Amino acid sequence: MKKILILSRFAKEYEPKRLKEEALKLGYEADIVKYGQISFGVYNNKPYIKLPNNLVITDYNYVIPRSSSKNGSSMIAVKNVILQYILELQVPALNQQTFKNYPLLGKIEQGFLMAKSNIPTIDYYSFGSKKGWDIFLQKSNIEFPLIVKGRFGSHGRTVRLVNNIEELKSDAKKYTKDSVLVQPVLPVKQWYRCIVVKNKAGDYEYLGEMRHRQKQKYQHPGFNFIEEKLVKLNDSRMEELKDICIKAATLFDCDYCGIDVLYREDTKQFVISEVNRTAQFKYFEKRTGVNVADKLLSQ
């Protein structure tokens, strides 16, 4: 019988519960283990990993690692050690190759690599030190408003809309520990959360998209789309959306990812904002009717 291990920051989070529920429907055994319950180390010069409740990692046929961040902090060290350990043991895992190639894949790396591969993304300027901030603040041609983002962060926790030099100087004091991206505020009325998976044959499958209205706080001041209806783009444009998402998933060698794509009202073009390798899918399942959990277990 196939045995699935689901690693999560919260055992009661929607995605781990759905994955376990779907695994049981398929006749599999499944366990959810929180990253915080795992201990590891070296004893007599041999590495070990200890799971709770006497579970043994080599008993599993497949591992699904969910996000390791929690309330702004991260247990990425635990996640990376586990993924490296099971790779050497030849225990397959979801997104195993992408995490091997890119243990950390922040917004800075994503944007640079996508642009290098001619995948449409958002312009940015980046630095990661107080000296970098000092140089940037001395520029005479800074165009406001602009967006300041942390290299990592979910749910907009590290994203700030900056309207003038005073706000920018204030934010410079808050973003001191890691690299940041400074980006233009684009004229965007709607954006899409898209999901791509790799099937058993190794081919990419586009599961669809959810359309969202851009939040007012991120709206370009020269464009007011708040009162306007969202637009349903034609099939040809949606095929473009699908194509760039598959290109991004291919670039980073993802078995599964959620991709946020903005639609620019000035150029009428799509640009990728972010690729998330542990994307949540609660609302995607509810709005599209696609059984994402089953897709992840059918690889």
Automatic annotation (TrEMBL):
Transmembrane segments: none annotated. GO terms for molecular function: ATP binding; metal ion binding; ribosomal S6-glutamic acid ligase activity. It comes from candidate division WWE3 bacterium CG10_big_fil_rev_8_21_14_0_10_32_10. One of its GO terms (biological process) is SOS response. Keywords: ATP-binding, Nucleotide-binding. This is ATP-grasp domain-containing protein. PROSITE patterns: ATP_GRASP. The keyword ATP-binding applies.
